[in-house]
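pls read this stuff:
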Amino acid sequence: MLEIVLILIIAYLLGSIPSGLIIGKVFYGIDIREHGSGNLGGTNTFRTLGIKAGIVVTLADILKGTLAAALPTLFDSSLHSLIAGSIAVLGHTYPIFANFRGGKAVATSGGILLFYAPYMFIFMICAFFISLYITKYVSLSSIIAGIVAVLYAIIHSFFEWDPLLIIIVAILASFVIYRHRDNIKRIKNKTEPKIKWL
């Protein structure tokens, strides 16, 4: 039991590492919470600091989910990888190291699937970029990727029954949609910024 508690604490702390804040302050002297959407995730980093910083932050946020999901294996624990990874998502969204103001859970959620279901992760990435190419909306593409992940999990379970995967992916996708509620309103009002690099 103590081992499980330790894994959950480490997973939360991993998720809480504010990649966007660190990259912005150390390399650019900028607190990205004071710019753009005020969000600590990859999208606001791209918008505020540029493509290189955005890529680094996005990869770091993905890695947080991957490492957290790997913790039960590293500790030889009975705790499910999806549970540990989900705690990292909470840390990313409500980070103790950044006054509980974090990202929108997309990259870190993807990182969990990179560890646990890599083919699903690849499918999600493809869905994200196809949507991004068509719509130019990062927020909408993130939501679509989440919905695609849920559909993938359901279809996958017809061949290999994995109810926890369906449950966790559905929760994470719902959380991503909830975190993008303001973006959804802006898309409806046609005030949501579109990317220009794709």
Observations:
- The two ends are 48 Å apart (CA to CA).
